[in-house]
Amino acid sequence: MSEPIGTIRSAHPPLAVLGGAPALAKPLPVGQLHFPAWSAYETAMRELFERQYYTNHGPLVQRFEAALRERLSVRHVVCVTNATIGLMMAVDALDLSGKVIVPAFTFIATVQAMSWAGLEPVFCDVDLRTHLMTPEFVEPLIDADVSAILPVNLWGDACPPAPLQTLADRHGLQLFFDSAHAFGCEIDARPVGNFGALEVFSFHATKVLSATEGGCICTNDDALAARLRNIRSSYGAGPLTAVPKTSNGRMSEAQAAIGLLNLERLGAVVERNREVKDRYHERLGQVTGLRLHLPRHATRTNFQYVIFEVDEDAFGLSRDELLEVLGSENIVARRYFYPGVHRSAPYRDELPRYIDRLPNTDHLGRRLIQLPSGAPVSAADVDRVCDCIELAHAHAGEVRDRLSGR
Ligand SMILES: Cc1ncc(COP(=O)(O)O)c(C=O)c1O
Hints:
With about 400 residues, this protein is α/β, with parallel strands linked by helices. It has helices at about 40-50, 60-70, 85-95, 110-115, 135-140, 160-170, 220-230, 255-265, 265-285, 310-315, 320-330, 345-350, 360-365, 380-395, 395-405; strands at about 75-80, 100-105, 120-125, 145-150, 175-180, 185, 190, 200, 215-220, 290, 305-310, 335, 370.
């Protein structure tokens, strides 16, 4: 692993909450940023300037789409401005109406995209171990107004698609995936991107493959791809297909330039992610009351997220207390996803019936913590984070007293 960006000031007790100096001199972010080399970026931008072509399905976007098609072994890739608009476009392309079953344990954009597209969310609980939607949670929620199921593939894992597809087919529903977290993952040697009617990836700055902002929609259905391309741009691209509405979901050439550079480095990024995650596992795997989330279904993962579950009784501190401890050390950890979307505005007010109906979502929302990972995080940084967590566990009683007296 490369050398630290976060500068280490002190490796030893006491913890900052107990009167010591913060372990890191400046904040260590949780965001998993990966940047290409400046020289490669400069070359790409020079070409773009020489070509004098900013957007409208330019040569770089076309090259990016071709590279993604090859990488994912999928027939069609439609690059878009971001995953949120990709999910909104998917609703029109699939001709959905009424309600969509979606987990409340997701980033709110999944559900907001459905609201923008005029669908009502039906919130579904998730499995406690995998944090993913399963057919057992979905089936009781199906009624005549439901037109689709939208599972979310989280933390470099993916829902087994076959049982969900069987359920969707049995009820005449569309199945499409929010795979914002799952680029580069596979299930039984088949890349994520090939399942359901379509899948949407995000290329946001913090994703394993970044195009600064961006995303893409993948499908093996030719007619659906034609609709998506026509919905994506009011200027049109390729043969015209009748669609109810058009939009501006175009990806710019500058986005595609970064996306292409980062796609070339994806293997190295995933390898580095693996090293970071392995180190956390090695250091904290045996700490009582902590459990690292590991993919259960993906046979290949991107190792992008480091998510631990904190069992307050066994660890000695709650997740929120641990967050405070780490914050005092300049370690920026995060609650992820908290609160569940069903408890977030506007849904908690507009759809109050879901409050207290999703026990696993609430349970995970109280207990999960995301720790720093990505290119700015060195092996030494990981060790510093782990030192602080071990100390917090060892001195839990004292830490709790100090925090409650604050
Ligand atoms: C699960 C999930 N879905 C959707 C999105 C939205 O992606 P974008 O920021 O590209 O619109 C995100 C973004 O972080 C996400 O985490």
